[in-house]
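Reviewer comment 2.1 asked that we show a complete input and output for one of the modelled complexes. We chose the 5HY case, as it is the one discussed in the main text.
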Amino acid sequence: MKINLINPNTCIGMTEKIANSARAVAINTTEIIASSPKHGPESIESAFDEVIASAALLDVIREGEAQQVDAHIIACFGDPALDAAREIATVPVIGIAGAAFQLASLVSYQFGIVTTMTRTLPASEHLLQRYGYQHFCSGARATDIAVLDLEDTSDEIYLELKQECEKSIRIDSAEAIVLGCAGMSDLAERLSEDLQVPVIDGVSAAVKLAESLHQLGLKTSKIGQYGQPLKKAFHGRYQHLDSSSKNR
Ligand code: 5HY
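Response of the prediction step:
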């Protein structure tokens, strides 16, 4: 199968890192096509960043559809534009936060989330509410490591992250850790060994869920909320999306 793995920010180093994490867990018949949008923020750390990144991310979904991929993965912990992507895609679209929660809930009574900036903690709360995982989560903690600082592979960053994971386990009673940023995907294995609890990276989780859906022949239902958007006129910079009859 072919997976369109999208890093919705424009940091190429992070795209490569995410691609490596995905390829490390994929079975050998899975091809990972990793890309990021041409336009938008270098990292996504606010609602503003997320909205700006979303339109460009949807362009990459359309490109993947043209290449006839079998699944799309949105590799950003906010799961930006997930519903919109499911509307325009014909194949499954998986967000890494939803994927991580699903797997974490299978291997722990309650999991903790350890993420980047404090200001993104409400976003984690919203994700838990949206997917109905509040009762599986012991709480979310921030490290105040900026997303792009995760590109620094020094021990200092790793130790800061590990320290917050330890607090999540010791103080919040987390039994597993969900990493709250795609840029942490390369650290999951080491953390899991050091902490002796399951540490779930959403990128790897999403790859394995995409492979499962593909093998089972399951695709997104198109009869309701995730049906194709209604045809209509688009103006200005989005004129290329115009599907009104006058333009067809
Ligand atoms: C992510 N931002 O996974 C999110 C995580 C965060 O650019 N990739 C980003 O820190 O909110």
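The chain has a mean pLDDT of 97. We note this here for comparison with the apo prediction described in Section 3.2.
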